[in-house]
Write a structure and sequence with these properties.
Elements (H helix, E strand, L loop, with lengths): L4 H14 L13 E6 L2 E7 L8 H7 L9 E4 L13 H7 L4 E4 L11 H8 L3 E4 L3 H7 L1 H9 L3 E8 L4 E3 L11 H13 L2 E5 H7 L17 E5 L18 E6 L4 H9 L3 E5 L4 H16 L3 E4 L3 H9 L5 E6 L9 E2 L15 E9 L2 E8 L9
Parallel strand pairs: 3-4, 4-5, 6-12, 6-13, 8-9, 8-12, 9-10, 10-11
Antiparallel strand pairs: 1-2, 1-3, 7-14, 13-16, 15-16
């Protein structure tokens, strides 16, 4: 389908508006909407927070003149079902708009296409696929959860130029610059959850909060700890921060330790899986289905980072590389098992590189073969 230059311009604006919900809409997607009449924007809106009005409703409510006959640009297909809010497709029908252009269809297989079908049945012209790549990228976690039942997983690594994350003693503060650490807080703030292992918590006692501007963000990501033996202490700093903490453990874990953690405010979930790879997959699946988690940021040690990567569960690596050397006795960033020949190596594709303070931020995705294994 051919789209005009004005179509591209107004959809780009809708995507710009959608980004305003980058930190607030979870578990919902980030969506923007622009209403245009005679090449004039008569209203704009975006989805501001889960449970609140969707982008189309906010835009309709902001109209400076009647929307009848106008063209609506929305970065995601209007919803056609009733959830915490009424369906947007019906609101557009009631407003008697003339045309609706969606950047991309709803990825939920239960409702995909139905919003546009309802509009077409009411005599409203529709089009879909304008700037669909950027629109899907903005909501990559939501799309993956809808399509695969798993969240989008980003592993954050802070390392020296020789690939080390800490001295042999465990000392690691600070490898990267303040600018890089502030950038990490921005990534935390837009994530739905932060995942780490009990070993990291025991070694560093982190808070795992999002402080993107030096102050606590209004919405804190869910803190998720993998702790098969429930080694986490009830006095751990992360249990006493704003937001929620979830601890995944095994079925055989000590019930008294679980009670202590729950009394300290943690939610403890026992996983039946015994194999480590199966536990990782089960935990991520649980987060997607039970908590609506779209995006997980991993801030963990070499073993967990390596296990996730080799299990094919890591979608992206964000590497902050500092201009310093720690030597061969320092701790490696990733522990990868079973690599003895070059053909077993894990290849990565660079997505982005930029300078953050005195450090480099390098973004990679794993190369995947047709069989689904990292190549």
């Amino acid at each position: 389908m051919e789209f005009s230059a004005p179509d591209h311009r107004y959809m780009a604006r809708a995507l710009q508006l959608a980004r305003r919900g980058l930190y607030t809409t979870t578990p919902n997607p980030r969506v923007g909407c622009v209403i245009v009449r005679e090449d004039r924007i008569i209203a704009e809106g975006w989805h501001e927070h889960a449970g609140g009005p969707h982008a189309e409703i906010n835009a309709l409510g902001a109209c400076r003149e009647q929307p009848a006959g106008a063209t609506v640009y929305v970065s995601l297909e209007p919803c056609s079902h009733t959830g915490r809010t009424p369906p947007c497709s019906q609101a557009l029908v009631d407003a008697r708009v003339g045309r609706v252009v969606a950047a991309v269809g709803d990825p939920n297989p239960a409702v995909s296409g139905r919003g546009l079908q309802q509009l077409e049945a009411a005599g409203i012209a529709t089009a879909c696929g304008l700037l669909d790549g950027p629109a899907e990228q903005l909501n990559r976690g939501f799309f993956k959860r809808m399509r695969e039942g798993l969240p989008f997983v980003t592993a954050k690594l802070a390392m020296s130029l020789d690939g080390r994350t800490a001295l042999a003693s465990g000392e690691s503060r600070w490898i990267t610059s303040g600018a890089a650490r502030q950038d990490v807080h921005r990534l935390r703030a837009q994530s739905c959850a932060i995942l780490t292992g009990s070993g990291t918590v025991l070694a560093d006692d982190p808070q795992l909060t999002a402080r993107p501007n030096g102050a606590l963000a209004a919405r804190q990501p869910l803190r998720v700890i993998l702790d098969s033996q429930l080694r986490l202490a009830p006095t751990a700093a992360l249990l006493h921060q704003p937001g929620q903490t979830l601890v995944f453990t095994t079925a055989a874990a000590d019930a008294s330790k679980q009670a202590q953690l729950e009394q300290a405010g943690a939610e403890v979930v026992r996983l039946q899986a015994t194999d480590r790879t199966e536990r990782l997959h089960t935990a991520l699946h649980w987060l997607a289905h039970e908590r609506g988690i779209n995006e997980v940021m991993v801030e963990a040690g070499a073993m967990l980072n390596g296990s996730l990567l080799q299990a094919g569960l890591t979608d992206e690596l964000v590497v902050y590389m500092a201009p310093l050397l720690l030597g061969p006795d320092a701790r490696a960033a990733l522990q990868l098992a079973g690599i003895e020949q070059m053909q077993q190596r894990l290849n990565l594709k660079m997505i982005d590189s930029r300078r953050v303070g005195q450090d480099l931020r390098l973004t990679y995705c794993p190369c995947v073969t047709a069989a689904g294994n990292a190549d």
